[in-house]
Amino acid sequence: MLQLFEEKSLMGVALRWYMSLEHGRVQTWKDLVKAFLKQYKYNMDMALDHTQLQNMAKKENGTFKGYAQHWRKIAAQVQPPLFKKELVIMFIDTLQSPFYDRMIGNVLSNFSDLVIIEEIVEMGLRSGRIA
């Protein structure tokens, strides 16, 4: 059974786990599924929550757009899901100065508009037009 599985499709920790399986233990695909779930079920039990999202911060050397995309990807996994207004408020709350300073007076309900405005702020900072 193990020989039928395409080992090339696994990488890193998953490949090491797969290679360490006892050959006689996994006879069917169902056995493989059970072994996999037993090993990695904890990932499903660790759903992201609002607190983890609120504690995120843009890396000093990262771009604003990169941070926003990463944050939004994580936000999509949070349970229970956020309403649009909560999403924008929580994202703004994770920002540091000068991004937070520029956004605090802005009332936006659309996440993509927020990202565009912050990219403009980032360009202004790089060019020296915003101190």
TrEMBL record:
One Pfam family it belongs to: Retrotrans_gag
Domain Retrotransposon gag: 9-95
Signal peptide (from-to): none
InterPro entries, sorted: Retrotrans_gag_dom
Designated name of the protein: Retrotransposon gag domain-containing protein
Protein origin, superkingdom: Eukaryota
